[in-house]
């Protein structure tokens, strides 16, 4: 059942080691998935039909689902919204963090638009030069551990280049207060 890894359409906070892909953390589903395809960390699932066949049937040994059932699942998943943010955007640190997100850190070059994703894949310098799908940042404050490998237990740890990657935004040059403000902003999404 989907809820084994996606309780309440969220995610279980676990990481899994998949043959040929390496370590991957469970992705949240309650983030407003509509308009964020392709799916999966590798960005290799063009739509929910492909994902169901490759993951649910192929990897997990589930039963093939009819078009009607996949359509019903799509309607359900695409209607979900992320949990209410844990911090209000009016918080002074969050407002400063928004400016860092949009300028100094360069986050909006990939995490753009209402869903905070450009739906593309990039090498972010975290492993073997592989390209990874830009996840939506909606509800990110609730989704520890962070990064595709789950190497960051906190949002602040995500900005350690040994975990977050050396090509993952312009974060290496940020001061500690700027990182704190950026973390505050991320908690408003």
Task: Give me a quick take on this structure.
The chain has 189 residues and is an alpha+beta fold.
Present the secondary structure layout.
Layout: E1 15-18, E2 22-25, H1 48-59, H2 67-79, H3 92-102, E3 121-123, E4 131-133, H4 161-164, H5 176-186
Antiparallel strand pairs: 1-2, 3-4
Helix pairs in contact: 3-5
Polypeptide structure, described:
The chain has 189 residues and is α+β, with helices and mostly antiparallel strands. It contains 5 helices and 4 strands, in the order E-E-H-H-H-E-E-H-H. It has helices spanning 48-59, 67-79, 92-102, 161-164, 176-186, and strands spanning 15-18, 22-25, 121-123, 131-133. The strands form 2 sheets. A two-stranded antiparallel ribbon has the order 1-2. A two-stranded antiparallel sheet has the order 3-4. Helix 3 (92-102) packs across helix 5. The two termini are 28 Å apart.
